[in-house]
Specification:
Layout: H1 3-27, E1 37-46, E2 55-65, E3 72-74, E4 81-84, E5 88-93, E6 96-100, E7 106-107, E8 113-114, E9 120-121, E10 138-140, E11 145-148, E12 151-155, E13 158-161, E14 167-169, E15 175-177, E16 181-183, E17 188-191, E18 193-195, H2 201-237
Antiparallel strand pairs: 1-2, 3-18, 4-17, 5-6, 5-9, 5-13, 7-8, 10-11, 11-12, 13-16, 14-15
Helix pairs in contact: 1-2
Length: about 240
Amino acid sequence: MDNPGYVTLTRQSGLLREMQVLAHNVANLSTTGFRREGVLFSEYVRRLDGDEATLSMAAANARQTFLDQGTLAQTGGALDLAIEGDGFFLLETPNGERLTRAGHFMRNAEGEMVNADGHRLLDAGGAPIFLPADAGPIGIARDGTISVAGEPLAQIGLVVPGADWQLRRDGGTLLQATEDLLPAEAAVLHQGFLEDSNVNPINEMARLIAVHRAYEAGQNFLEREDERIRTVVRTLGN
């Protein structure tokens, strides 16, 4: 295979990864707190031997998570919470602390606030939040302070990464910070609301169609190149 074929193969590999990411975004249109992803393409340029022009090849090994605000939908649930502004809930998982914007919580058998996967929600001091079984009406203020029957009980920990905002996706709606966490001082909490996915279905579908067409064009080129090389081999072999 000559250089155009190798260049097209690297491009096809990147386009395939982007199609997979876009399809995953579309599949999570209705997932509470989901953050859409994108693929970052990198270009590698190498000088060839002799008088040949330089060779440019692409790679798409890095992903970007977009953190723009999703729409807040009212549910009325006492333990349904949505964050307005920059900030994340802090969860305790078997793999360590993780961040999320998905705010659907409940009380487990031990009286702790957990998400749907059983991960415990942590307070501002990094400890699990316990709600008494006989607790009266639960109120959650805009700063995360939890009150039971009018008495303050705990404060939900809302955090942001450090200055670089380095985050790694850890499956579903969980994110892992690669730097120290800071209090999310500007974040506002809304009780009885959930934040929708920030995926725009029209934009994602339009991009998915465009990428699919580009992939098909590259596939057609590779098939024509394959047929050309086979023709040359058959001709020289006769």
